[in-house]
């Protein structure tokens, strides 16, 4: 048995590797989607998705638009669903420069689904984009503070399916790490497997933290305690830190 399969077994990874979407998330193409079933401002919805290492969903094709619309309606059809859902599209940084959703006339191959007269700069603060629940999910720009539903989108290539992703009771991905008090050793890491190997080869290592600082910079911390045995004060949720028990 090679180290990889040992890791999989020890991590209690029950799903097959092909089933890469976490429980409660829905696969479409190369991404997983999660419906936030409560009303939030655009910023709050964005931060909820970011906490699961995801982004607000943005439809990049008519097919994806249809998928997201149907998912919202199938998963969740509240009586006030006409409020629609935020998408990852805004001109917060610079009025008229829309992020992730090209303007009509730009990039002719890029998908867009603006409602007639949108985007509009008529109302100040209407810097965030909503996908309607009707009319083919057309897009409107609205004030970012409006309470709306939302869907998160997680590109499958953005995370390693070997991670034993921890799912909170609300279905969102959490990634608790042990605090620095339990670190036996800190190493530079290439990724999950090399960090896991380092932990396996250390006699006192029970779990490890993989801190991803982006651009290939990863830190691997070997811990003297298993996450499953950790008290609440030993565990922290830090952005881009993944904890995994051996
Ligand atoms: Ca998308
Ligand atoms: Ca604007």
TrEMBL record:
<feature type="signal peptide">
    <location>
        <begin position="1"/>
        <end position="18"/>
    </location>
</feature>
<dbReference type="InterPro" id="IPR016186">
    <property type="entry name" value="C-type_lectin-like/link_sf"/>
</dbReference>
<dbReference type="InterPro" id="IPR018378">
    <property type="entry name" value="C-type_lectin_CS"/>
</dbReference>
<dbReference type="InterPro" id="IPR050111">
    <property type="entry name" value="C-type_lectin/snaclec_domain"/>
</dbReference>
<dbReference type="InterPro" id="IPR016187">
    <property type="entry name" value="CTDL_fold"/>
</dbReference>
<protein>
    <recommendedName>
        <fullName>C-type lectin domain-containing protein</fullName>
    </recommendedName>
</protein>
<dbReference type="InterPro" id="IPR001304">
    <property type="entry name" value="C-type_lectin-like"/>
</dbReference>
<keyword id="KW-1015">Disulfide bond</keyword>
<keyword id="KW-0732">Signal</keyword>
<dbReference type="Pfam" id="PF00059">
    <property type="entry name" value="Lectin_C"/>
</dbReference>
<feature type="domain" description="C-type lectin">
    <location>
        <begin position="28"/>
        <end position="153"/>
    </location>
</feature>
């Amino acid at each position: 048995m090679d180290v990889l399969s040992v890791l999989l077994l020890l991590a209690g990874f029950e799903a097959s590797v092909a089933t890469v979407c976490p429980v409660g998330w829905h696969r479409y193409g190369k991404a997983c989607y999660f419906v936030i079933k409560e009303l939030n401002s655009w910023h709050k919805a964005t931060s909820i998705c970011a906490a699961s290492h995801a982004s607000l969903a943005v439809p990049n094709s008519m097919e994806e638009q249809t998928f997201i619309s149907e998912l919202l309606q199938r998963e969740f059809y509240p009586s006030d669903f006409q409020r629609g859902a935020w998408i990852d599209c805004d001109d917060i940084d610079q009025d008229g420069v829309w992020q992730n959703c090209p303007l009509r006339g730009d990039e002719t191959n890029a998908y867009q689904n603006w409602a007639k007269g949108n985007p509009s700069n008529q109302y100040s603060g209407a810097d965030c984009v909503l996908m309607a629940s009707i009319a083919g999910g057309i897009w409107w720009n609205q004030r970012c503070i409006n309470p709306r539903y939302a869907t998160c989108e997680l590109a499958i290539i953005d995370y390693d399916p070997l991670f034993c992703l921890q799912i909170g009771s609300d279905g969102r991905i959490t990634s608790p790490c042990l605090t620095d008090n339990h670190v036996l050793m800190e190493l530079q890491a290439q990724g999950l497997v090399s960090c896991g190997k380092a932990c396996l080869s250390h006699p006192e290592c029970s779990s490890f933290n993989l801190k991803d600082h982006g651009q290939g910079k990863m830190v691997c911390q070997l811990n003297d305690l298993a996450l499953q045995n950790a008290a609440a004060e030993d565990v922290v949720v830090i952005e881009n830190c993944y904890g995994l028990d051996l």
